Automatic annotation (TrEMBL):
UniProt-listed InterPro entries: ABC2_TM, ABC2_TM_bact-type, ABC_2_transport, Nod_factor_ABC_transporter
Major localization listed first in the record, in broad terms: membrane
Name listed for the protein in its UniProt record: Transport permease protein
Transmembrane segment boundaries: 50-72, 84-106, 127-152, 164-187, 194-214, 252-272
């Protein structure tokens, strides 16, 4: 790149940042739409990137139903476990799909794609929101496959369809909030491998130290205390109550509070980090 070209690019970048506050809502939505389309075309060119969303629900459902089902519900009674674990897996799907956002955005920086976006007169947040929009779509696909597997293994809806849709919506909202954490992680770590490694250190305790797979009352006291404050437990309990019936208000409101709190804290940090990342 020549010195003149570099100067022009830097000037354009500074102008874009300076003018970001003047970009209207309609323009922002148009930018998000265009960037989301770019991300979807990227998936079309690399269909292997959908393997996690397509295969993970199948593998997890079969694995946990037939591995943990016998231990929790008794050998030969795995079908009774389906109504317990599938709503919990809805929470797990959101977190695992969210992890891919961090590695993806880190890889885009490595390729120089994000540097190009930062020279354009668009809101910095639109680049990140477009990522989340596409990943939410992938999450919906994974959840649909998960429920399909659940129905094939004997899942029954003991409430009604609106309650099932509410469980899906709640899982999606919470999963979208988690994406901001992993975007911030992807913008902070140096390599996609580092992002994935740190993400696993966060994912494993939260997933297995929750009510997703087993009732907290069967756990040691110290672990039971952790599961009660684990946001994934609240989401799993809320989805379970919406599908199977039972008290739901407390778990739903706590989950929404977590989602709002995570977004309010991490979204501005992620956008600020996106502006400054070199």
């Amino acid at each position: 790149m020549s010195a003149a070209t570099a100067t022009v690019s830097a000037s354009a970048g500074r102008a874009a940042v300076a003018g970001e506050g003047r970009i209207g809502l309609r323009a922002n939505l148009r930018h998000i739409g265009a960037l989301a389309r770019r991300n979807m075309l990227q998936i079309k060119q690399d269909p292997e990137s959908m393997f996690d969303a397509l295969l993970m629900p199948v593998i997890f459902t079969l694995l946990f139903v037939y591995v943990f089902g016998g231990a929790v519900s008794g050998k030969g009674n795995q079908h009774a476990y389906v109504n317990y674990v599938v709503p919990g897996l809805m929470a797990m799907m959101g977190m695992n799909i969210a992890q891919a956002v961090g590695t993806g955005i880190n890889d885009d920086f490595k390729k120089g794609v994000m540097d190009r976006f930062r020279t354009m007169p668009i809101a910095r947040s639109s680049v990140l929101i477009a990522k989340i929009v596409v990943e939410v779509g992938r999450m919906m696909i994974a959840t649909t496959i998960l429920l399909g597997m659940g129905f094939a293994l004997g899942l029954s809806i003991k409430t009604d369809v609106p309650h099932l849709l509410a469980a899906i919506a709640l899982s999606t909202v919470f999963g979208a909030s988690l994406m901001w954490i992993f975007i911030l992680l992807g913008l902070t770590m140096k390599t996609p491998q580092a992002v994935q490694g740190v993400a696993l250190l966060v994912l494993m305790p939260l997933q297995f130290g929750s009510s997703i797979f087993a009732k907290p009352t069967t756990m040691p006291g110290w672990l039971e205390g952790f599961t009660k404050v684990n946001p994934l437990s609240n989401l799993a309990d809320a989805a379970r109550a919406l599908i199977n019936g039972g008290p739901v208000a407390h778990s739903v409101w706590v989950t929404l509070a977590w989602a709002v709190g995570i977004t309010v804290v991490t979204a501005p940090l992620a956008v600020a980090r996106f502006r400054k990342k070199t």
